[in-house]
Amino acid sequence: MVWRMDAPVDFIEVYDDALDAATCAAIVQRLRDSDRLTAGRIGGGVYPELKRSQDLRISGLPDWADVEAKIQQAVLGGLLRYLRRYPQALVAPLMLQIPDVGGTLRRLRAEDVQGMAEPALVELARTCLRPGAINLQWYSAGEGGYPYWHCELYPRDASAETLHRHVLWTLYLNDGFEEGETEFLFQQRKVKPRTGSLLIAPTAFTHTHRGNRPQGGDKFIATSWILFQSAQALYGG
């Protein structure tokens, strides 16, 4: 089968209403009220000239477990849609096999993923992928932002954890300000924040991006990655 897309694609998807507005507003208020905010970090440390924000990593915090669960559920829904749109995200790198008629194994095809029942696709996604830690970020109007052009893959740690990042995601928790877009360099595309919308895109240099400064109001997001499972989890040994 020759795989065709109806039109050129940039692999950047935005899913509106991934999380309801009331839940987003409640998360924003809890973040505003938190006494555990820290200066926003990038891979190498704190560099406010590259990224200026107040952050809270909520994964592993018992009092934020309810928020983490709601966000992860919203991201899972978007991820399933993304995998049906781009099944090669699983098929191309992993060369998966499934039982065929008679019980023999054959390679998983893109059309298998697209036609898969949701419970089976959830199981496949959880077998191959894992969620990253969620970071809530607060960008103050006129000064906060991540204006440095960057991607999400880099060989920082000995375990190569950062090289396991497969797709990035950003959940916009508010709007009502100007600018503040997520801007992709090579795709020449700016994604405007809308309350409850979920952005998913690849992590590599092909999707170099930046977070523009919000004007006229503060910007709040939740963000992380979907990573491949470790080699040990995928292949044993």
Gross CATH architecture: Sandwich
Count of DSSP H/I helices: 6
How far is the N terminus from the C terminus?
A: 35 Å
Please give the number of β-strands. 16
**Major sheet:** 8 strands, antiparallel
CATH homologous superfamily heading: q2cbj1_9rhob like domain
> What count of structural domains?
1
What class, by secondary structure content?
alpha+beta
Mean pLDDT: 94
Domain Prolyl 4-hydroxylase alpha subunit Fe(2+) 2OG dioxygenase: 139-226
Protein name: 2OG-Fe(II) oxygenase
Organism: Stenotrophomonas panacihumi
Pfam family, one: 2OG-FeII_Oxy_3
Provide tags for this entry.
single chain; alpha+beta; 6 helices; 16 strands; globular
Description:
By secondary structure, this protein is α+β, with helices and mostly antiparallel strands. The protein has a single domain (13-235), classed as q2cbj1_9rhob like domain (Jelly Rolls, Sandwich), CATH 2.60.120.620. It has 6 helices and 16 strands. The protein has helices at residues 21-33, 65-85, 88-94, 110-114, 118-128, 231-235; strands at 13-15, 38-39, 54-57, 97-99, 105-107, 129-131, 135-139, 146-150, 165-172, 178-179, 182-184, 189-191, 198-202, 209-211, 214-215, 219-228. Strands 1, 2, 3, 6, 7, 9, 13 and 16 form an 8-stranded antiparallel sheet that branches. The longest helix is centred in the N-terminal third of the chain and has 21 residues, at 65-85. The protein is globular. The protein starts with 12 loop residues before the first strand and ends with a helix. It comes from Stenotrophomonas panacihumi. This is 2OG-Fe(II) oxygenase. Residues 139-226 form the Prolyl 4-hydroxylase alpha subunit Fe(2+) 2OG dioxygenase domain.
